[in-house]
């Protein structure tokens, strides 16, 4: 009991001391000290509340900003504005006439379609391919020379191994109508050469006959020896058949050819082409030299080529006439043969005449599809 009283007295004394201190020191500094303590407690409470509210506010604002940016991007960059995009898409289709449009349900033939503007087409081709016919430099065509050389090499290989060219020429000479004074012609020599033509200085120009048509002018140079040797007999049938026989041996070689080759793609339905074909047929019918090859061109594409009149064609003619007393390399015979060959070339391939090769359709077809043969499949077939 005394201990209890002693502890109670101590507590009372402490309270009295604190109260006394507060009462005694009831001045501004003590009151300020108490106010600062209270303010610190209040500030800690308010700071914790404001920091929690600031984090939630920032998170909410950030999420809303991301949603707004995504909505803006999807609306203006993905979907776009239909009221602004529609005139940009429709206007070109209304103001521009398509070159070739097929609409289902319209039975309109090709002849009923509006005329094809070749002038506009050639101009657009030059613009879109960045080719200026006046300033563009000529091309060497080295890659084309390689392709042509490969084709010629393959042709020579087949001709030499299978004797295709020999049999073809023999059949052509035997089936031709020979005059009565000429005996059967036999081929004695064939040389298909070992060199290749060189194409160079290619340039695109407007055709002088039709400014709306483009054509390629290419310089061609062939320095090779192509030889054909034959032998026959001249028959003297007067006063009776086979009164006398004169053996003749000829060898004609082309040693040099150079010219400017003109190549262009045309449509066989063009009026210009049809009129030129009719003029050629009329002129050949007038002189009785028309060759009916049964070539009827439709309305497809064709490759037209011709050579310039200033071409260079050199021959080497060797002749041997007679049985016992032989005449060798008679100049008159060489000049006559050279003149005939040049005349044949002029009438067929030199401007204004031209040769025409009809091109096949460029659309892919099932019958033209090929597949490389696998070695394993070949082995399986051979084993079976």
Automatic annotation (TrEMBL):
Give the matching CDD domains: SMP_Mmm1
List the ranges whose topology is Lumenal: 1-58
InterPro entries (UniProt xref): Mmm1 (IPR027537), MMM1_dom (IPR019411), SMP_LBD (IPR031468)
Q: List the Gene Ontology MF annotations in alphabetical order.
A: lipid binding
Question: Domain SMP-LTD, which positions?
Answer: 137-360
Report the locations given in the UniProt record: Endoplasmic reticulum membrane
Q: Which UniProt keywords apply?
A: Endoplasmic reticulum, Lipid transport, Lipid-binding, Membrane, Transmembrane, Transmembrane helix, Transport
Q: Where are the transmembrane segments?
A: 55-79
Q: Which residues lie on this side of the membrane: Cytoplasmic?
A: 80-384
One Gene Ontology cellular component term attached to this UniProt record is:
ERMES complex
What is the membrane topology listed in the Swiss-Prot or TrEMBL record? Single-pass type I membrane protein
Keyword Transport among record annotations: yes
Q: Which GO terms describe its biological process?
A: mitochondrion-endoplasmic reticulum membrane tethering; phospholipid transport; protein insertion into mitochondrial outer membrane
Q: Which domain of life does the protein's organism represent? A: Eukaryota
HAMAP family in alphabetical order = Mmm1 (MF_03103)
Instruction: Give the function comment from the record.
Output: Component of the ERMES/MDM complex, which serves as a molecular tether to connect the endoplasmic reticulum (ER) and mitochondria. Components of this complex are involved in the control of mitochondrial shape and protein biogenesis, and function in nonvesicular lipid trafficking between the ER and mitochondria. The MDM12-MMM1 subcomplex functions in the major beta-barrel assembly pathway that is responsible for biogenesis of all outer membrane beta-barrel proteins, and acts in a late step after the SAM complex.
Question: Which protein family is it in?
Answer: Belongs to the MMM1 family.
Q: How does it assemble?
A: Homodimer. Component of the ER-mitochondria encounter structure (ERMES) or MDM complex, composed of MMM1, MDM10, MDM12 and MDM34. A MMM1 homodimer associates with one molecule of MDM12 on each side in a pairwise head-to-tail manner, and the SMP-LTD domains of MMM1 and MDM12 generate a continuous hydrophobic tunnel for phospholipid trafficking.
Matching PANTHER family: SMP-LTD DOMAIN-CONTAINING PROTEIN (PTHR13466:SF0), TEX2 PROTEIN-RELATED (PTHR13466)
- Spell out the protein name for this chain: Maintenance of mitochondrial morphology protein 1
Native source species: Komagataella phaffii (strain ATCC 76273 / CBS 7435 / CECT 11047 / NRRL Y-11430 / Wegner 21-1)
């Amino acid at each position: 009991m005394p201990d209890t009283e002693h502890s109670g007295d101590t507590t009372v004394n402490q309270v009295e001391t604190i109260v006394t201190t507060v009462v005694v020191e009831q001045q501004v500094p003590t009151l300020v000290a108490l106010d600062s303590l209270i303010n610190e407690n209040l500030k800690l409470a308010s700071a914790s509340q404001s920091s929690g509210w600031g984090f939630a506010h920032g998170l909410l604002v950030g999420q809303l900003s991301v949603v707004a940016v995504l909505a803006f991007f999807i609306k203006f960059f993905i979907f776009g504005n239909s009221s602004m995009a529609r005139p940009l898409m429709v206007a070109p289709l209304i103001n521009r006439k398509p070159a070739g449009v097929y609409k289902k349900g319209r039975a309109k033939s090709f002849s009923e379609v509006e005329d094809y503007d070749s002038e506009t087409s050639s101009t657009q081709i030059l613009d879109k391919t960045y080719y200026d016919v006046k300033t563009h430099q000529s091309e060497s065509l080295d890659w084309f020379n390689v392709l042509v050389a490969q084709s010629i090499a393959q042709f020579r290989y087949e001709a030499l191994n299978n004797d295709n060219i020999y049999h073809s020429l023999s059949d052509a000479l035997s089936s031709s109508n020979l005059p009565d004074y000429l005996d059967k012609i036999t081929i004695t020599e064939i040389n298909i050469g070992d060199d290749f033509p060189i194409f160079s200085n290619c340039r695109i120009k407007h055709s002088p006959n039709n400014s709306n048509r483009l054509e390629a002018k290419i310089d061609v140079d062939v320095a090779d020896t192509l030889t054909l040797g034959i032998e026959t007999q001249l028959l003297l049938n007067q006063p009776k058949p086979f009164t006398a026989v004169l053996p003749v041996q000829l060898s004609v070689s082309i040693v040099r050819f150079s010219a400017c080759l003109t190549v262009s793609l045309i449509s066989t339905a063009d009026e210009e082409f049809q009129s030129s074909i009719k003029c050629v047929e009329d002129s050949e019918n007038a002189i009785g030299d028309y060759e009916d090859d049964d070539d009827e061109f439709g309305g497809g594409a064709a490759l037209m080529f011709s050579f310039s009149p200033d071409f260079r064609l050199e021959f080497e003619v060797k002749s041997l006439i007679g049985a016992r007393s032989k005449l060798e390399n008679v100049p008159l015979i060489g000049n006559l043969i050279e003149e005939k060959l040049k005349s044949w070339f002029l009438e067929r391939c030199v401007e204004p005449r031209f040769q025409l090769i009809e091109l096949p359709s460029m659309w892919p077809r099932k019958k033209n599809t090929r597949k490389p043969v696998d070695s394993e499949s070949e082995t399986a077939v051979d084993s079976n």
